Every structure is written in C-alpha cells, then in structure tokens.
From TrEMBL:
It comes from the Bacteria. InterPro entries: G_crystallin-like (IPR011024). Pfam families: Inhibitor_I36 (PF03995). This is Peptidase inhibitor family I36 protein. It comes from Kitasatospora cystarginea.
Length: 232
C-alpha cells in the first residue's frame, strides 16, 4: 500500500524527470545541424563540442592550422571541390579527402589530425601540390609530388643556408632555363646511385616536375639555371 507521503515524493520525482527531459530535448533539437551551419561553397572545420574552428570559401587553402584553436574533429565540405586534408602544415604527411557535399569525422580516419587543407577538382589533385610553385621559379619540396614545405628561387643559388637544409622529395622547374641540381654547396659534390654509378648533377628541363628518387633526394645543396643542359 502506497502512503500519501510516498505518492507525493513519487509525483515530485516524475515532474522533475519530465522537466529535465524537456530541457534536454529542447536543447538538442535546437542545436544547429553542421550542414546547415556551413555556408554553401565553403569548407567548415569543427572542434571541441561542435564549435566552429574555421570556415573558408573554396578554393581557398589554409597552409597551417596548428594555431586554429584546437584539434579538428569534423570537416564539412559544402563546396563543389574535393577537400584535401593533410596531417602536417604545408600540405604534408598523410592525406584525407572529403568529396563535394560530404562530411568527415576525423576520429579513426586516414588523417586523425588536420594541419592544412586545400581544394582540388578531383581526388587525384589531393596527392599533388606542384601548382603552388610561382611562375619563372625553381621550386624544391620536402615530400614527393610537390608536397610538404617548399622553397623557391628565381636565380642560381650557390648555397641555401637557412633557406633549405638537406635533401628534397620533388622539384618543379617553372623557369625558362634548365636547372642543374648539385648535392653540395658551391655546385659541387657527387651522388652515388644504387648501381654504383656516380653523378655530379641532376638536370631538370624547363617546365618539368618530378619526384626525386635515390640517391638524389638525400642531398640537394645548390643549383644553377643555364640555357644549355650540357653546362650542368
């Protein structure tokens, strides 16, 4: 048998539970949908408790997101381009792709962290970043296919100093001359290939881009720009 006091307590608890459920229901039902909050033609990056870290109009690119305010948890692509996600600044490291109109939860994805982002017209465009090399320049990249940190020059460089240390993963010669790459400063040094052959220089014709294989990627210390490749 239920006493009046117990019935009163039960009634109060039921009312409190109903109020809590109503509050939670209203709070979450009014939470804006990610897709609705991301403007058309934009990339939207969310972090924390669904907070917006960055909204960029495609085809804009972000070179370094490490200071954006926290880890990226979700990416919404409301543009007509593919959103290319990179785990390192300057489009380096592992690559993730979000199709036009798609949403990517970064947890468990190919790129659990996002440090840079760019637009591409196709999936294949996410795997190459040669296009950021300025016209009439020689560009060296840390990683293959024009990815990772980049440095460019418009003239010969007998030494790179603090501009560039060590080797290069790829190169694009957008100048009008042939580029001669050398393993050491002062247009000196020699590479030894796996087959034992020795090479004093690596020639990149004008307008050409390539990923550098062994042994060339291990050291690039200077370069010249010449009219005749035989001068290398």
């Amino acid at each position: 048998m239920t006493t009046p006091s117990r019935r009163a307590v039960t009634g109060v608890m039921a009312i409190l539970l109903a109020l809590i459920c109503a509050y939670v229901g209203v709070r979450y039902s009014t939470q804006p949908d990610r897709a609705a909050r991301c403007p058309a033609g934009s990339f939207c990056l969310y972090g924390g408790k669904d907070g917006t870290l960055m909204t960029a109009s495609a085809p804009a690119a972000a070179w370094d997101l490490t200071g954006s305010g926290g880890p990226v948890r979700t990416v919404r692509n409301s543009s007509q381009y593919w959103a290319c996600l990179y785990e390192k600044p300057s489009f380096g490291g592992r690559v993730g792709k979000v199709p036009p109109g798609g949403t990517q939860d970064m947890k468990g994805s190919a790129t659990p962290s996002v440090a840079s982002i760019k637009a591409a017209k196709s999936q294949a465009g996410c795997l190459s970043d040669y296009e950021r090399c300025p016209e009439r320049s020689l560009c060296l990249f840390r990683e293959p296919s024009g990815r990772g940190p980049m440095q460019y020059w418009t003239a010969a460089a007998p030494e790179y100093g603090s501009d560039w240390h060590g080797g290069a993963g790829s190169v694009w010669n957008r100048s009008v001359q042939a580029a001669c790459l050398y393993p050491a400063p002062g247009y000196r040094g020699q590479w030894t290939a796996p087959d034992g052959q020795h090479y004093d220089s690596f020639v990149v014709p004008p307008g050409s881009s390539t990923t550098l294989g062994a042994p060339y990627q291990t050291a690039v210390g200077s370069h010249r720009l010449v009219d005749d490749p035989s001068e290398c």
